[in-house]
C-alpha cells in the first residue's frame, strides 16, 4: 500500500477549536434586533447645565458659611466637598449617557464600574480626612452632605418636571 492509498486520518481540533488544514467557513451569525436609538440623545444630559449652576451656587454658599463660621480653611473645605459631589455626579451622568447612546447593554456594567470607582475614591478621601488633624474635615463632610442633598433634590425635581411636560 502506498502513502496515497491510506485512509484519511481524522484531524483533531486545534487550540481554539480549529481543525488544521480544514477550509475556513464563513461564519456570519445574524445580529439581534436592537431597539432604535433615540432621535435626539441630548435629553440624557440636558439637566447638567442647570444642576452645575445650582451646584456652583451651593459651592459659593458653602464657602461663605464656612468662612463666616470657621475661617478660610473651612471655606475651602466646604467648597471642596461640594465640588467632589459635582464632579462625581457629572462623571456618572456622562458615562451612563454615553453608554446608553453607544449600546444600552453597557449602561449597567459601566454605571456600576463608575459607582465603584467614585465611591472608592470618596471613601479614601473621607477616610484620610477623618483620620487627619486637619481643621477643615468637618466642613468637608458637611459640604459633601449638602452637595448630595441638593444635587439629588434638584435632579428629582428636574425629572419630575420633564415627565410632567410629556
From TrEMBL:
Superkingdom of the source species: Bacteria
Residue stretches spanning the membrane: 48-69, 75-99, 106-128, 140-160
Region (Disordered): 1-22
Keyword annotations: Membrane, Transmembrane, Transmembrane helix
Name under which the protein is recorded: ATP synthase protein I
Amino acid at each position: 500500500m502506498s502513502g496515497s492509498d491510506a485512509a484519511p486520518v481524522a484531524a483533531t481540533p486545534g487550540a481554539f477549536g480549529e481543525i488544521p488544514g480544514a477550509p475556513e467557513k464563513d461564519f456570519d451569525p445574524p445580529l439581534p434586533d436592537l431597539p432604535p436609538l433615540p432621535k435626539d440623545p441630548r435629553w440624557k444630559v440636558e439637566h447638567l447645565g442647570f444642576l452645575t449652576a445650582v451646584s456652583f451656587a451651593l459651592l459659593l454658599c458653602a464657602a461663605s458659611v464656612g468662612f463666616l463660621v470657621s475661617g478660610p480653611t473651612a471655606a475651602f473645605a466646604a467648597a471642596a466637598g461640594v465640588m467632589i459631589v459635582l464632579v462625581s455626579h457629572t462623571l456618572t451622568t456622562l458615562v451612563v449617557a454615553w453608554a446608553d447612546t453607544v449600546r444600552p447593554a453597557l449602561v449597567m456594567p459601566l454605571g456600576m464600574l463608575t459607582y465603584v470607582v467614585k465611591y472608592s475614591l470618596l471613601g479614601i478621601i473621607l477616610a484620610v480626612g477623618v483620620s487627619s488633624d486637619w481643621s477643615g474635615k468637618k466642613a468637608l463632610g458637611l459640604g459633601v452632605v449638602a452637595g448630595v442633598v441638593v444635587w439629588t433634590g434638584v435632579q428629582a425635581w428636574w425629572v419630575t418636571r420633564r415627565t410632567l411636560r410629556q
